[in-house]
Specification:
Keywords: Membrane, Transmembrane, Transmembrane helix. This protein has about 130 residues and is mainly alpha-helical. The chain is about 70% helix and about 5% strand. Helix 1 packs antiparallel against helix 3, helix 3 runs antiparallel to helix 4 and helix 4 packs antiparallel against helix 5.
């Protein structure tokens, strides 16, 4: 197996890596709060989890693959947080429209993240590959 060249390496500066590690800690605390129905912890962890995800996304905006994946993560955290809050506040089972409940509205940011990734993999990445072949 050949070794990757420098142009194929993606390195993360140490301060960015520490921020990503902190992001994981906040995300886990948010989900533990959700799992254990510790409402103050779960709700309090939404802001730092989402804020760090936005900072990471901003810092990687020049790399199309990283931008697409980090945007998908921002929407995933948003959907996940909304779903958690809907359960905590009891509107997860309230019918909003037809059979759609409050919890189902979390599909909007989930699907937005999915569409971003589909666009990246079906449009942007093939363009990049074609550009490198020519």
């Amino acid at each position: 197996m050949s070794q990757p060249t420098d142009e194929h390496l993606y390195s993360i500066p140490a301060p960015y890596r520490r921020m990503e590690n902190m992001h994981i800690l906040f995300w886990l605390l948010k989900d533990i709060g959700w799992c254990m129905v510790w409402k103050p912890l779960g709700i309090a962890m939404i802001f730092p989890t989402l804020a760090i995800a936005l900072v990471i996304t901003w810092r990687t905006r020049d790399l199309q693959a990283e931008l697409a994946h980090n945007l998908a993560i921002v929407f995933w955290i948003s959907a996940n947080s909304y779903w958690m809050v809907s359960e905590f506040l009891g509107f997860d089972t309230v019918q909003v429209w037809g059979t759609v409940t409050g919890k189902h509205l979390a599909l909007l940011p989930f699907l937005t993240g999915l569409l971003i990734l589909l666009y990246y993999y079906l449009v942007q990445k093939p363009r990049q590959v074609r550009a490198t072949l020519t």
